[in-house]
Amino acid sequence: PEQWRLFKFLxxxxxxxKPKNVDEMSHVRxxxxxxxxxxxEASLIFFGARLLLAxxxxxAFAVLRTSxxxxxxxxxxxxLFILAAVVGFYAPTLWVKMKTQRRxxxxxxxxxxxxxxxxVCVEAGLGLDAAMNQVADEISMxxxxxxxxxxxxxxxxxxxxxxxxxxxxxxxRTDLEDINNFTTLLIQTDNFxxxxxxxxxxxxx
Length: 205
What we know:
Elements: H1 2-17, H2 22-34, H3 42-64, H4 67-70, H5 74-123, H6 128-138, H7 144-158, H8 163-174, H9 177-192, H10 196-204
Helix pairs in contact: 1-3, 3-5, 5-6, 5-10, 6-7, 7-8, 8-9, 9-10
């Protein structure tokens, strides 16, 4: 498909222009994960899109500029070319930021109901891991974003991650204070051996 070819092309561009600094690459990957882009190729596509747009927008401006723009002084025309390049360069960053904000809003909207349902499941006798998985299935239609995040916690647990690490990863992926407070509370409950059901009920209330 055309979309696959485009992504492959962007990935090749990104491979050629990706930063050598490991910390910068890690930061970009974390930023993309928060926006829901978890593919191993996502960071390369991001860098490729940034380069392509930084070139394509000034090129399109050069081709499509009107007769009025042709009458502008050379200096002003160059400023517009540079501005088009800057807009193209930062457009992917803005897109990722907007996508992240939309995901966070969706998660926040569904979190109170998910927490109530999780509390009911634990009080009914399910363990915390099973309760989170059950909630993920129950809300998959109404809030696919939060459902996906909870299912990732379950997948990490199945892959051998400790519950504490899986919960910390959930907090890092969502980057939300409410989720961070929730995961911190569960980790502390795990450490002190207190009742998870009671903890969830108090937190839910």
